[in-house]
Structure prediction request, 224 residues.
Amino acid sequence: MRRSEEDEFARSLAELKRRGCGILVVGTPSSEARRAAARRLLGDATVGPRRRLFVFTGDAATDERLGNGPIGPSTVRVVSRATATRRPDAASAPSAPEPVPRRTVRSERLSRLASIVSDEIGSFESEAGALRPGELRLCLDSLSPLLSTYEEPAVRRLVAAVTNRVKAVSGMAHYHLPARADDPAVVRLGRAFDALIELRVRDGAPVQRWYLPERDCGSGWLPL
Prediction:
């Protein structure tokens, strides 16, 4: 990538962080690589406040203990579908010192899931007074169980509703879809996102590659 392209890509990323964005994380590497990507996207709580909302829809690779900084009712919330399960990695994340608010969605309607996610973001807003750009970080893990249960247009509507709510507070939402970047579902769904991140394991280490559809620019392979 030429220096001018690097500068344009960096400016575009900074703009997405300021205005809020939705990011699709694809690729079929290990769960550890997905966790590493999620940890990055959840932000660094040592440089500013972070409010993290986890949405679990199936057999997730991530868990609510990802990310640095305090873990408790004012900083972390969890929304799960009734069928969702998680595989927390106790070796890589300490136990939460305080109970984390959790809500389980038993309705089959995706609109109900979107509504509860919106409510939880509203709770963060009420507690914080106002959320700074990039303060809210949402992780939805993963879209695969939804695509296997619902028609693709219904999943797109859910993504749009959740992302628009996150953008309303200039937050960042990322969605995991463990599928190849050239998978037809990824190609179709990718149009609904501000950025795509492809994960890969190279020489035993996870790497990432970004693409910004709106600007038609991206990065080379970068370490996670």
Notes: The longest strand covers residues 195-202. Helices lie at 3-19, 31-41, 110-128, 144-149, 152-167, 184-189.
